[in-house]
Amino acid sequence: MLQILYLYRMNEWHDIRWKQRFESFDASLGLLREAMANGPHALNQLEKEGAAQRFEFCFELAWKCLKDYLQHSGVNLDTIAPRQTIKEAFAAKILADGKVWIDMLDHRNLLSHTYNRSNFEQAVEAIHLRYLDALQQLHAFLAHRMSE
């Protein structure tokens, strides 16, 4: 009986966990939208750096929320890493474009670990042109699941 109660609590915790993480993802996406509202050309260098930081936070919350959602849905992840989570979510048809998510991961890694002005500008442009839309698609998918 105790084991059944424990398993119930574990499932309840996972259910709550992805929903809690979604709330943080929702807030971070709102901040990223705000930063990119007028496009990267409207931003000065400091504002671009802030937008890049918001993107990093948003991406981290997005993939972790996705991981929690997959686990809640019964997907057993071999490794808990962004690349594996993205692949599993693409296979489950949660993500429409796996390549854009892998590109997003690569840009997040570049922004976090190195500074090269050309790479930085390309990443900020990609956030505006490609990544924001992909993040919003994931958000819409998860928001729909929140209401179920």
Question: Would you give an account of this structure?
Answer:
The protein has 5 helices and no strands. It has 148 residues and is mostly helical. It has one domain (2-146): Four Helix Bundle (Hemerythrin (Met), subunit A) (Up-down Bundle), CATH 1.20.120. Helix 1 packs across helix 5 (117-146) and helix 4 packs across helix 5 (117-146). It starts with a helix and ends with a helix. The model is unreliable at 1-10 (pLDDT under 50).
Give a short overview:
With 148 residues, this protein is mainly alpha-helical. It has one domain: Four Helix Bundle (Hemerythrin (Met), subunit A) (Up-down Bundle).
Task: Describe this protein with a few key phrases.
Four Helix Bundle (Hemerythrin (Met), subunit A), 148 residues, mainly alpha, 5 helices, globular
What is the topological layout?
Blueprint: H1 2-36, H2 45-72, H3 82-91, H4 98-113, H5 117-146
Distance between the termini: 29 Å
Number of domains: 1
Structural class determined from secondary elements: mainly alpha
The gross shape turns out to be globular
Radius of gyration: 17 Å
- Counting DSSP H or I runs of 4 or more residues, the number of helices is 5
Mean of pLDDT: 90
CATH architecture: Up-down Bundle
Sheet of most strands: none
CATH topology: Four Helix Bundle (Hemerythrin (Met), subunit A)
Name the CATH class: Mainly Alpha
Contiguous low-pLDDT stretches (5 residues minimum) are 1-10
Estimate the helix proportion, in percent: over 70%
Fourth-level CATH superfamily: Nucleotidyltransferases  domain 2
How many extended strands? 0
Strand/helix succession: HHHHH
